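Weekly modeling sync, notes
Attendees: S.R. (lead), two postdocs, one rotation student

Agenda item 3: backlog of single-chain predictions. S.R. asked that every request posted to the team notebook include the full sequence so nobody has to chase files. The rotation student volunteered to paste the first one in as an example of the format we agreed on. Action items at the bottom.

Example entry:
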Amino acid sequence: MTDETPDSLIPYDEIVQEALRAVVGRVLGEVEAGGGTLPGSHHFYITFKTGAPGVQIPSHLRERFTDEMTIVLQNKFWDLKVDEDGFSVGLTFNQIPAKLEIPFGAITAFVDPAVDFGLQFQATVADMAPEAHDHAENDGSGEPGERGPHPAVTESDDGSNVVTVDFGRKK
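Predicted structure, as returned to the notebook:
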């Protein structure tokens, strides 16, 4: 018997990544089917590769987030549409409305901090190594009594809409 593990002829990693991305699609699909309203205190942080094939975001966001971007689906989003390949959603950034189209293959992280649930994905685009990036926080609803950010989110001190997201790492 040998201690060496043979190379698999079955692409298990790819199959698992595809199945986990289907979880994101199902969750977003259920939100869409429920009228676009998140149940209870659920909210999502979705990180994706801005340069991945099929990603459609406004040019000012692509210029600012050249590698990755994190969006927040919580209080103020609209027109959530989900299909088998990805989703589209309307969000505001610095009070400017924007439509984003994101294929599931571009997603690198999905987190629901309300229930401490998170998924990390490998980029499906060849040679897209992760780089340091800023996180985008789309505008909140601004309504009185709106919940503040989850404790894992720290807003920047300069008043910008950029946040740092700690996806549950112990410090």
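Discussion: group reviewed the output briefly. The longest strand covers residues 86-93.
Action items: rotation student to repeat for the remaining queue; S.R. to check formatting next week.
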